[in-house]
Amino acid sequence: MRPSRWFVLLAAVAPALLRAPSLPAQDRAERQSLDRAREMLRIVKRDIEREYYDSTYQGIDLAARYRVADSVLGVSGSLPEMFAVISQFAADLNDSHTRFLPPSQVARVQYGFQWQLVGDSAYITRVQPQSDAAAKGLAPGDRILGLDGMQVNRRTNRIVQYVYYTLRPRPGVRIAVEKPDRSQVQLDILSRITQGVAINDYTSMQDRGRMIREIEEGSFASRHRWHAFGDSVLVWRMPAFRGGDEEGIDEMMRRARGFRALVLDLRNNGGGSVATMLRLIGSFFDRELPVAITRERSKVDTLVARPRDEPYRGEVMILINSGSASASEITSRTFQLQRRATIVGDRSAGAVVVSRFFPHVVGFQRVYGYATQISVMDLVMPDSSRLEGRGVTPDVPVLPTPADLAAERDPAMSVALNLVGVALNATDAAQLFRERRRD
Q1: CA dihedral in degrees (244, 250, 251, 253; nearest 10)?
Q2: How many CB atoms lie within 10 A of CB 119?
Q3: pLDDT tens for each residue of the chain, 439 residues long
Q4: Which secondary structure element, helix H or strand E, spans residue 392, and what is its range?
Q5: Distance CA 341, CA 331 (A)
Q6: Bridge partner residues of 101 (DSSP)
Q7: What is the spatial distance between Cα 392 and Cα 350, in angstroms, rounded to a whole number?
């Protein structure tokens, strides 16, 4: 069995991870917990065997890995440890979209800060007011040197995010950072823990109001936003490829046709619907365009974007960064290969496969809900390249500096606009889409 780099990463994460107090705290696992964990492991293996697009499992001996994981479960001391073992089993495929989603924590944990990759380093991009992180002096522009002793970079970021936000949220973190002035500090930051709701009561006005607010927040976060510079240049921020949003794409394209240039902002767009992606791509070409070769377990096919009415013929700039994934990457690379747009910004995430979620429950009186996310389709671009693990390299690389992050400047948007004839500095460019914050 060849060890994957994910195996090495989880081995490094596990000691610090498992020493942290859980939410809620777990006693030593009883036999019933072990039986449930083994059932979850069995189902994860079954989902991978049935659904994973590669019948060779990336060259991994899945049965042997399963036997190892099952034996480790037998000596694990708590449910969080067992969930880490099951997570490792899925992570051994070294696939951006295949993972185990353990029973969710009822408590909501907020660390008080957010980070993002810029180039190969992780930088603080937002700190919540009134948080312990703000009180301790953490600030946008700080470069993360270590998070509980772990490095955060292009190679490790995906699994660190998974550990801290999905597998095992923590009541506190120790973070080492380099300030924009090159000084280094280490901070112990307490998380903000908010008790969640285990059961939604649809007869309760309070619960109904909370659920409506959550739906509205999600709708706001994923809606199209735009800004016009006279009748010359349109800037379109597209936060996600929402399923069923073909009419929204058509509406934005009707608006764009009145402008000589379009700046399409796909930064931090994690992808979404393939149909929505094809609708967008087809709006720029007057012919059917093969976008990618798809490979599933039982068939090979081609994704084709079909033209829609009169295509947009103006100049196009596309903005991407390390948070641009999946459909955003396929779109950007398609335009790049067709020489239809100039790509500006940072290298994309390199997370380009199609996945599905498979929900499950285990238990009888006390039921645990969990799920698997399985990559069911691989994609190869028309030039025979794969974006998975590689990403899209911009035509015009523009990376914000620590000073830019600290001052909330947007140099990439400024460069894109200047390329289409709009003179706007990085400070003013950052004001185009001032995000509504939920601190």
Answers
A1: 140
A2: 14
A3: 334 444 444 544 454 444 444 444 444 446 788 889 999 999 999 999 999 999 999 999 999 999 999 999 988 878 888 999 999 999 999 999 999 999 876 567 899 999 999 999 999 999 999 999 999 999 999 999 999 999 999 999 998 999 898 888 889 999 999 999 999 999 999 998 776 654 444 455 555 454 445 444 444 456 899 999 999 999 999 999 999 999 999 999 999 999 999 999 999 999 999 999 999 999 999 999 999 999 999 999 999 999 988 899 999 999 999 999 999 999 999 999 999 999 999 999 999 999 999 999 887 656 778 999 999 999 999 999 999 999 999 999 999 999 999 999 999 999 999 999 999 999 999 999 875 444 3
A4: none
A5: 10
A6: 371
A7: 7
Tell me how far CA of residue 383 lies from CA of 274, 286, 292, 293, 333, in angstroms.
Answer: 20, 21, 9, 10, 10
Backbone torsion region of residue 408, taken as left when φ is above 0, otherwise alpha when ψ lies between -120 and 50, otherwise beta: left
Q: Which residues pair with 360 in a beta bridge?
A: 370
User: What are the start-end ranges of the H helices in 30-78?
Assistant: 31-51, 62-73
Both tokens assigned to 341: 């747009």
Q: Which amino acid is at 429?
A: A
Beta carbons within 10 angstroms of residue 212's beta carbon: 10
CB 156 within 8 A of CB 150: yes
Rounded Cα distance, 97 and 404, in Å? 32
- Residues in contact with 20: Cβ distance below 8 Å, sequence separation at least 6, in sequence order: 168, 170, 171, 172
Burial class (CB in 10 A: 0-12, 13-18, 19+), 397: middle
Residue 142, amino acid: D
Helix (H) or strand (E) holding 217: helix 205-222
Other Cβ atoms less than 10 A from the Cβ of 153: the count is: 14
**What is the token pair recorded at 79?**
């449910």
- C-beta separation of 169 from 109 below 8 A: yes
pTM: 0.85
Rounded-to-integer distance, Cα 193 and Cα 210, Å: 18
